[in-house]
Amino acid sequence: MAVLHRITGTALGLMLAIIAFAAPVNAQQPTLKIDVTGGVVEPVPFAIPVFIAENPASAAIANNITRVIAEDLLSTGLFREIPKAAHISGVSNFNAPVQFADWRAINSQALIVGAVSSTNGRLTVKFRLWDVFAQAPMGDGVQLSGSPENWRRISHKVADAVYARLTGETGYFDSKIVFVSETGPKNDRRKRLAIMDHDGAGLAYLTSDEHLVLAPRFSPNNRDILYTSYESGVPRVYMMNVDTLQLRVFENLPGMGFAPRFSPDGGKIVLSISERGNTDIYTVDLSSGQRTRLTSGPSIDTAPSFSPDGQQIVFESDRGGSQQLYVMSANGGDAKRISFGNGRYATPVWSPRGDLIAFTKIVGGRFHIGVMRVDGTQERLLTASFIDEAPTWSPNGRVLLFFRVSSGANGAPQIYSVDITGRNMHMVPTPSFASDPAWSGLLK
Amino acid sequence: MTYLTKTAAIMALLATVACTDTTGGLFGGNGSDINGAGIGSIDEASLEYFQASIGSTVLFEVDQSSLSADTIATLNAQAVWLNTNSTVSILIEGHADEQGTREYNIALGSKRASSVRDYLVSQGVADSRISIVSYGKERPVAVCSNISCWSQNRRAVTIVNGGMGV
Q: How much is the ipTM here?
């Protein structure tokens, strides 16, 4: 079993080492491949026997790790777990030959076998993924280790690796969501920033609910967030380090500032500034503080979002008479309208893959989340409700989070998830009302 | 608190705030619980008078920031009062109903507040006495999800420095 290479180093100050080891020799070629772009309707069945506890101290954590990996995979809607009660073979030794016939008999197309050991404050998890019908390993075995309190991140990394091998896409489970947590009645709503793992675990609050806060956004390295706060009495843009909670205030910006986002290289922010009633788009260089105006004129220009290469910005404007989407150079100048359907278009967000733009559409008194190609063609609406608003992309550009508001006097927002195929829509549970989700990139 | 002592307290507060830097302390909102019900005669320089007899709130049509005839009548009366009580400063809040996206509604609320400010300035109120803020759809006064509530939420509220209005 040859150690091939070490994949990562530090993560959020915690050591997380990943080592790949080679597949057994003379293995068959796997044939299992799941298309996430639209072909899958029937979830692919998989089995994940509880990971082997290689010492008694790791039994409980092995159970938890196995459960989180399964939950990650199930949350995609692409997979279905064969219940453990149906398993014919047990797996008691990580290196024992797989009894493929036993797994084939219960129609488990993929099999995840893993082992956990916990010694001297170090948690080690290894796993192999098997294509049961081809009787072949899918990729090398992988060993991850870190401190025991990091067991959730290790689980998510295993699930990301499994997802990647089964779909050919990068995973998205080892990621964070920052959002606005809301409490109280509709006419006295309290809002505070909160952050949690992609599956809702590890929730922590980043601000108190003393001041209204809106629309947090991650930096490309996931360490900082931009958001809007009314702390000064008017909306202004703040930058917070997620680990230290240290704040940077953009003090010399005039008027009201809102709708900020980072550039893909993290060197600039783009935001809207409303001055004497007129809202335009500006960039601010984070090193020099230099401000550059990108739009002008009396229209409302807001909700800017960079393309992944940093060369262009998509934004919404009512310059043509109604809210529509436009693309301009990241330096400003002429803008090209890309939305032409009925209704109003808002909150465009460029996919991290660069291929699509997600948006909010308001038509016929209903709100929709949709996607279109970056030239505005092939528009598809994925959702519809009283209010569906503010999409944010998964790190791999295959899933969107947004918030849905129920109507009426008790109306309140919750975060929802939907695939860009329109399938697998579900609420993301949060302890209280929740809006304005922003998905981080994949953690390092 | 009796009416007289309440008025005295508010006038004292008004005098204090009017002398302070207008960049701070403007945004408390509902700090004073003012309810003029059953009051026979109100001091025309009082905040009660401004709110009850002139009106602090003006309404807007869907996705509009232009001023209706009713709005202009209210703002004319606000301007007269402000020109008489020339030491107070005001904050104009712009608001939108829930039927738009968040960022757009902040921009729309800003346009509404700015429309009111520009009109008051045109009526002789010094620009330096006026601050504006937009809350977009974040602070509805009416909570139902139909036109009867939305029409109340599409508003600009003139708050006399010292904490009045809603």
A: 0.92
